[in-house]
Design brief:
Length: 284
């Protein structure tokens, strides 16, 4: 090989290595609406996980159509399941097509928090991370709501992220859900910075907002809808106010890199899709 060609090859290999290292510098990687034995989108997004580090956060509707233990072991496990050891899941409505979401809790075990509840929290890379069950009551006065308030009170953190299945706002087919309004207000009052959800099968990023949807760049929560884990896409409806980036008919995962006082995000599509969304922000 000629010297110039060899130098160019070494440069290209170094660039590839640098790119891989940059991708691996990840705190958390997330998507919802993931796996079935009847489509291949989950395997495409699982291959992204193979080269992206960090905690894997599933955003619900992880195994279709019923979230049964069989669907988890025979469908989900062959794709996203190979990253089970680093997964911290959230539960979705399709899991509850099996009584009490028994397949979900059996498959994930202690990784899903207390048996039968579906809400828990953990610390990661200096952040406090809260996982909620939006299929169980979250209204003020319920067990889960009171747990949320106490958890946020007893875990003060410079930066906090929460994730659960149903989004507060969405430009997708299902739209935003009022069932999480009280929880959103509690998180806003406690200074939560980022919320991740799925349910609608598209990607969307919102500007920081207060609990009633007004722009609030000082204390607002930034919400991402990441229902792009593998399930068939939904068409978008009318664009919701303060939606800053949106894409239908994409599959991929959201990478988040936690900083002591902020975070960076990047939507990583499966090969062949050109849509990307990336940025950075400071914590509240």
């Amino acid at each position: 090989m000629r010297p110039l060609a060899a130098a160019l090859l070494l440069f290209a290999l170094a660039a590839c290595d640098a790119a891989e290292r940059a991708v691996d510098d990840t705190s958390l990687v997330a998507a919802g609406d993931i796996a079935s034995c009847y489509w291949r989108g989950d395997e495409a997004t699982a291959r992204l996980l193979d080269r992206i580090g960090g905690v894997v956060a599933t955003l619900g509707d992880n195994a279709y159509p019923n979230g049964s233990y069989r669907e988890y072991t025979q469908c989900y496990h062959r794709s996203w399941g190979r990253h089970l050891d680093r997964t911290r899941p959230a539960v979705g409505n399709h899991e509850y097509r099996t009584k009490d979401a028994a397949g979900y809790f059996r498959y994930f075990g202690a990784r899903a928090g207390p048996p039968g509840k579906g809400w828990y929290s953990y610390a990661h890379d200096g952040w406090h991370v809260v996982v909620l069950n939006s299929d169980e009551p979250l209204d003020r006065g319920t067990e889960q709501f009171e747990w949320l308030v106490e958890d946020l009170r007893t875990h003060p953190s410079r930066c906090t992220l929460a994730y659960f299945h149903h989004p507060r706002w969405s430009s997708g087919r299902h739209g935003g859900k009022d069932r999480v309004v009280d929880a959103y207000r509690a998180m806003y009052d406690a200074g939560v910075d980022v919320v991740l959800s799925g349910h609608d099968h598209h990607y969307e990023r919102f500007a920081p907002m207060d609990p009633v949807g007004r722009l609030d760049r000082e204390r607002g929560i930034r919400q991402f809808v990441v229902g792009t884990g593998g399930a068939p896409s939904y068409r978008l409806r009318e664009r919701v106010r303060n939606s800053e980036a949106v894409a239908a008919h994409v599959r991929g995962v959201l990478r988040l890199e936690f900083r002591p006082d902020g975070y960076e995000w990047e939507f990583v599509p499966v090969p062949g899709r050109k849509f990307r969304d990336a940025g950075r922000a400071r914590c509240n």
